[in-house]
Write a structure and sequence with these properties.
By secondary structure, the protein is an alpha+beta fold. It has one domain. 35% of the residues lie in helices and 14% in strands. It is built from 6 helices and 5 strands, in the order ααββαααβββα. The protein has a 3-stranded antiparallel sheet. It has a two-stranded antiparallel sheet with strand order 1-2. A hairpin with a 6-residue loop joins strand 1 and strand 2. Helix 1 packs across helix 2 and helix 3 packs antiparallel against helix 4. The longest helix is centred in the middle third of the chain and has 15 residues. The protein is globular.
Protein backbone atom coordinates (compact mmCIF):
# COMPACT_ATOMS: atom_id res chain seq x y z
CA UNK A 1 0.00 0.00 0.00
CA UNK A 2 1.35 3.40 -0.97
CA UNK A 3 1.16 6.29 1.46
CA UNK A 4 1.19 10.04 0.89
CA UNK A 5 2.93 12.78 2.83
CA UNK A 6 1.05 15.97 3.72
CA UNK A 7 2.28 17.51 0.46
CA UNK A 8 1.21 14.49 -1.58
CA UNK A 9 -2.26 14.50 0.04
CA UNK A 10 -2.53 18.26 -0.57
CA UNK A 11 -1.64 17.90 -4.25
CA UNK A 12 -4.21 15.11 -4.67
CA UNK A 13 -6.96 17.12 -2.92
CA UNK A 14 -6.15 20.19 -5.00
CA UNK A 15 -6.28 18.20 -8.23
CA UNK A 16 -9.62 16.61 -7.32
CA UNK A 17 -11.27 19.78 -6.00
CA UNK A 18 -14.37 20.41 -8.16
CA UNK A 19 -13.81 24.18 -8.40
CA UNK A 20 -10.11 23.69 -9.22
CA UNK A 21 -9.31 27.11 -7.74
CA UNK A 22 -7.70 26.00 -4.48
CA UNK A 23 -3.93 25.50 -4.78
CA UNK A 24 -2.12 22.62 -3.13
CA UNK A 25 -0.49 25.13 -0.73
CA UNK A 26 -3.97 25.83 0.69
CA UNK A 27 -4.62 22.13 1.32
CA UNK A 28 -1.10 21.63 2.66
CA UNK A 29 -1.67 24.26 5.37
CA UNK A 30 -5.13 22.89 6.08
CA UNK A 31 -4.05 19.23 6.32
CA UNK A 32 -1.22 20.19 8.68
CA UNK A 33 -3.68 22.08 10.90
CA UNK A 34 -6.21 19.22 10.77
CA UNK A 35 -3.48 16.81 11.93
CA UNK A 36 -2.20 19.19 14.63
CA UNK A 37 -5.72 19.54 16.03
CA UNK A 38 -6.13 15.75 16.03
CA UNK A 39 -9.08 15.65 13.62
CA UNK A 40 -7.24 13.23 11.34
CA UNK A 41 -4.59 10.87 12.63
CA UNK A 42 -1.88 9.84 10.14
CA UNK A 43 -1.54 6.10 9.55
CA UNK A 44 2.06 6.41 10.68
CA UNK A 45 5.11 8.67 10.53
CA UNK A 46 8.34 8.39 8.56
CA UNK A 47 11.28 9.44 10.67
CA UNK A 48 11.14 10.72 14.21
CA UNK A 49 11.07 13.89 16.21
CA UNK A 50 10.14 17.30 14.83
CA UNK A 51 11.02 16.33 11.27
CA UNK A 52 8.84 13.19 11.15
CA UNK A 53 6.65 13.11 8.05
CA UNK A 54 2.97 12.22 8.54
CA UNK A 55 1.86 9.48 6.13
CA UNK A 56 -1.71 9.04 4.88
CA UNK A 57 -3.57 6.19 3.23
CA UNK A 58 -6.73 6.71 1.14
CA UNK A 59 -9.03 6.56 4.19
CA UNK A 60 -7.18 9.37 5.92
CA UNK A 61 -7.01 11.52 2.77
CA UNK A 62 -10.80 11.10 2.51
CA UNK A 63 -11.25 12.14 6.14
CA UNK A 64 -9.01 15.18 5.59
CA UNK A 65 -11.22 16.07 2.61
CA UNK A 66 -14.38 15.73 4.71
CA UNK A 67 -13.03 17.94 7.50
CA UNK A 68 -11.70 20.42 4.94
CA UNK A 69 -15.14 20.61 3.32
CA UNK A 70 -16.86 21.37 6.62
CA UNK A 71 -14.25 24.01 7.50
CA UNK A 72 -14.76 25.70 4.13
CA UNK A 73 -18.49 25.79 4.85
CA UNK A 74 -17.68 27.77 7.98
CA UNK A 75 -18.13 25.10 10.63
CA UNK A 76 -16.55 26.20 13.88
CA UNK A 77 -13.57 24.19 15.04
CA UNK A 78 -15.41 23.15 18.21
CA UNK A 79 -18.01 21.42 16.01
CA UNK A 80 -15.43 19.83 13.71
CA UNK A 81 -14.40 17.54 16.57
CA UNK A 82 -18.06 16.50 16.89
CA UNK A 83 -18.15 15.64 13.16
CA UNK A 84 -14.96 13.63 13.55
CA UNK A 85 -16.60 11.70 16.39
CA UNK A 86 -19.43 10.67 13.99
CA UNK A 87 -17.08 8.99 11.48
CA UNK A 88 -17.60 5.53 13.01
CA UNK A 89 -21.40 5.77 12.80
CA UNK A 90 -22.98 3.69 10.04
CA UNK A 91 -26.68 3.25 9.33
CA UNK A 92 -27.74 0.11 7.45
CA UNK A 93 -25.12 -2.10 9.06
CA UNK A 94 -25.43 -5.03 6.72
CA UNK A 95 -22.72 -7.62 6.52
CA UNK A 96 -19.49 -7.76 8.47
CA UNK A 97 -17.61 -4.53 8.93
CA UNK A 98 -15.20 -2.93 11.35
CA UNK A 99 -14.03 0.50 12.33
CA UNK A 100 -10.61 1.50 13.59
CA UNK A 101 -10.16 4.99 15.00
CA UNK A 102 -8.54 7.17 12.38
CA UNK A 103 -9.90 5.41 9.32
CA UNK A 104 -13.25 4.86 7.65
CA UNK A 105 -15.65 2.03 8.48
CA UNK A 106 -14.61 -0.89 6.29
CA UNK A 107 -18.04 -1.30 4.69
CA UNK A 108 -17.90 2.35 3.58
CA UNK A 109 -14.37 2.21 2.11
CA UNK A 110 -14.98 -1.21 0.52
CA UNK A 111 -18.32 0.02 -0.83
CA UNK A 112 -16.73 3.09 -2.39
CA UNK A 113 -14.05 0.93 -4.00
CA UNK A 114 -16.87 -1.17 -5.54
CA UNK A 115 -18.82 1.97 -6.53
CA UNK A 116 -21.68 1.37 -4.12
CA UNK A 117 -23.39 4.68 -3.33
CA UNK A 118 -22.60 5.99 0.16
CA UNK A 119 -23.52 9.30 1.76
CA UNK A 120 -22.28 11.09 4.85
CA UNK A 121 -25.04 13.07 6.51
CA UNK A 122 -24.45 15.52 9.31
CA UNK A 123 -26.90 17.77 11.12
CA UNK A 124 -27.32 19.89 14.21
CA UNK A 125 -29.63 18.37 16.79
CA UNK A 126 -31.30 21.36 18.44
CA UNK A 127 -31.07 21.64 22.20
CA UNK A 128 -33.18 24.13 24.09
CA UNK A 129 -31.16 26.98 25.50
CA UNK A 130 -28.28 26.74 23.01
CA UNK A 131 -29.48 29.29 20.49
CA UNK A 132 -30.18 26.53 18.00
CA UNK A 133 -26.63 25.17 17.87
CA UNK A 134 -27.25 22.02 19.84
CA UNK A 135 -25.05 19.03 19.18
CA UNK A 136 -23.69 17.62 15.94
CA UNK A 137 -24.97 14.22 14.78
CA UNK A 138 -23.89 12.31 11.72
CA UNK A 139 -23.46 8.95 10.06
CA UNK A 140 -22.72 7.16 6.83
CA UNK A 141 -25.64 5.64 4.98
CA UNK A 142 -25.81 3.51 1.86
CA UNK A 143 -28.00 4.36 -1.15
CA UNK A 144 -30.51 6.91 0.25
CA UNK A 145 -29.31 9.41 2.84
CA UNK A 146 -32.65 9.65 4.68
CA UNK A 147 -34.50 6.47 3.77
CA UNK A 148 -36.53 5.07 6.67
CA UNK A 149 -35.87 8.06 8.93
CA UNK A 150 -39.59 8.86 8.90
CA UNK A 151 -40.47 11.68 11.29
CA UNK A 152 -36.94 11.79 12.72
CA UNK A 153 -35.36 12.85 9.44
CA UNK A 154 -33.44 16.09 9.99
CA UNK A 155 -34.78 17.33 6.67
CA UNK A 156 -38.39 16.65 7.63
CA UNK A 157 -37.83 18.48 10.92
CA UNK A 158 -36.28 21.48 9.17
CA UNK A 159 -32.91 21.02 10.86
CA UNK A 160 -29.78 22.35 9.03
CA UNK A 161 -28.24 19.33 7.33
CA UNK A 162 -25.17 18.52 5.21
CA UNK A 163 -25.39 15.55 2.85
CA UNK A 164 -22.32 14.53 0.87
CA UNK A 165 -22.23 11.76 -1.72
CA UNK A 166 -18.91 10.37 -0.53
CA UNK A 167 -18.73 7.77 -3.29
CA UNK A 168 -18.77 10.48 -5.94
CA UNK A 169 -16.34 12.64 -3.98
CA UNK A 170 -13.90 9.96 -2.76
CA UNK A 171 -13.80 7.29 -5.49
CA UNK A 172 -11.10 9.31 -7.33
CA UNK A 173 -9.01 9.27 -4.12
CA UNK A 174 -9.23 5.47 -3.88
CA UNK A 175 -8.38 5.28 -7.62
CA UNK A 176 -5.45 7.72 -7.46
CA UNK A 177 -2.31 6.12 -8.93
CA UNK A 178 -0.17 7.56 -6.15
CA UNK A 179 -2.20 5.54 -3.61
CA UNK A 180 -2.34 2.35 -5.67
CA UNK A 181 -1.02 -0.72 -3.95
CA UNK A 182 2.47 -1.53 -5.12
CA UNK A 183 3.10 -5.22 -5.81
CA UNK A 184 5.17 -7.05 -3.25
CA UNK A 185 8.66 -7.92 -4.51
CA UNK A 186 8.92 -11.44 -5.86
CA UNK A 187 10.78 -13.90 -3.71
CA UNK A 188 13.05 -16.61 -5.09
CA UNK A 189 11.39 -20.00 -5.32
CA UNK A 190 13.00 -22.66 -3.18
Amino acid sequence: MSLLTVQGAAELLSRLEPTRDLPSAYFSRQVREIVQRGYVKPLRYRGSGRTAAALFDADRVCLADLISTFIRFGMQTSHVADVQACIGNVDDRTGPWSYALGGLPTNVSDGIRHREIWFFKCWTEPLEGTGGLGSIRGSFRATEPFRADDAWSPLKRGVPTFVINVTQRWAPIFDAPELAAKPEPATAAE
